[in-house]
Automatic annotation (TrEMBL):
Record-linked Gene3D superfamilies: L-arginine/glycine Amidinotransferase, Chain A
Name of this chain's protein: Arginine deiminase-related protein
InterPro entries, alphabetized: Amdntrnsf_FN0238
Pfam families: DDAH_eukar
Native source species: Nocardioides lentus
Taxonomic superkingdom: Bacteria
Length: 344
């Protein structure tokens, strides 16, 4: 398994997607649906885009766990990377969210699946910090280099540096926080819109870090192990070129296949030389998701990577024997463990 590029992901199929009014004030990338387009039409278009992302990932050999969500009060649940991250060694983190209507996106059934299918040792839950008005929105607020163990974070009220340092202590990362703003001086709301880190290549809008010394420190840290740094512009950031993620798939013959997944809009914004630099180490997989991008996030935001060791698969005859004993196993408090089973 690659340290940086997970071979499995969690996606949420949000059946009632719409741009979230509660996040519009500080998300400069968010936009309204086209005039005259109903909420039902917006939701249906977004569902088709979510399915297209899942299909594209499966086509390159990535394992995809899809969870359905029909709750109309969770318009942003398509973005699970903000509340969940997983880490080598069996560690899982659950994060505090800024918008109050996003906090119930956290799902016990997702955590139960991870514990069932993968080796989970520890779940560290920071969500209680919401009561103190302190937030760190997962791998939206942080861009993690799992190889060099660095957590890059643009400071904002969605990325509190005290929680960042606590996370880094708990999970063994070096915090690297910085200011990042657009040409109008508006702070970047999530670090993952301005950059992503792959195994051998990183895309980063270094020009949006106004402090020259800090900018060069970030550049040096990104490239210290020989990683190629592809600098993207603010204009490309607005096309979501920074909101990409490297995954590890499989060819039909079973060989590893590294892919950089991004939206079609992001891919179209890249210059030929940037594409060539990325494709030296991984192929680009681009999916058209214009409706989902209305919410101010793109492909990276949709993907919660699974950096955990998979458990051995149970033999079918053993499964049948267990089912014969109890078709609906329950916890000690009587809760049905089959509740919330993901749609694969």
């Amino acid at each position: 398994m690659s340290a940086q590029a997970p071979s499995a992901v969690v996606l949420v199929r949000a059946e009632r997607f719409r741009p979230n009014p509660a996040t519009a004030a500080d998300n400069a990338f968010q936009a309204d649906a086209p005039a005259g387009q109903s909420e039902d039409d917006t939701a249906a278009r977004a569902l088709a885009e979510m399915d297209a992302v899942a299909d594209a990932l499966r086509a390159v050999g990535v394992r995809v766990h899809v969870f359905s969500d029909s709750d109309h009060t969770r318009p942003d649940s398509v973005f699970p990377n903000n509340w969940l991250s997983t880490h080598a060694g069996g560690q899982v983190a659950v994060y505090p969210m800024y918008a109050s209507n996003r906090r119930h996106e956290r799902r016990a059934d997702v955590l139960e699946m991870l514990k069932s299918d993968y080796r989970v040792q520890t779940i560290v839950d920071y969500s209680g910090l919401e009561r103190d008005g302190i937030f760190l929105e997962g791998t939206g607020a942080m861009v993690l280099d799992h190889v060099s163990r660095v957590a890059y974070a643009a400071r904002s009220h969605r990325a509190d540096t005290h929680v960042l340092e606590r996370f880094c202590t708990d999970f063994g990362y070096e915090p690297m926080a910085f200011e990042a703003v657009d040409s109008q001086g508006v702070p970047v709301y999530h670090t993952n819109v301005i950059g992503c880190v792959g195994t051998d290549v990183a895309l980063f809008a270094l020009g949006m870090i106004p402090d020259e010394q800090r900018r060069e420190q970030v550049r040096e840290r990104l490239s210290v192990n020989g990683r190629t740094v592809v600098e993207i512009t603010e204009e490309q950031v607005r096309e979501f070129a920074g909101n990409a993620v490297e995954l590890c798939g499989r060819t039909p013959e079973g060989r590893r296949r590294y892919v950089m997944v991004m939206s079609a809009r992001a891919r179209a914004s890249l210059r030929d030389d940037q594409v060539a630099a990325i494709e030296e180490s991984c192929e680009i997989v681009a999916v058209d998701i214009p409706t989902i991008e209305l919410a101010g996030g793109s492909v990276r935001c949709m993907i919660a990577g699974v950096h955990l060791d998979r458990r051995p698969q149970v033999e079918p005859e053993i499964t049948e024997a267990v089912e014969a004993i109890d078709e609906h196993p329950r916890t000690a408090d009587g809760r049905d463990l089959m509740e919330g089973t993901p749609a694969s």
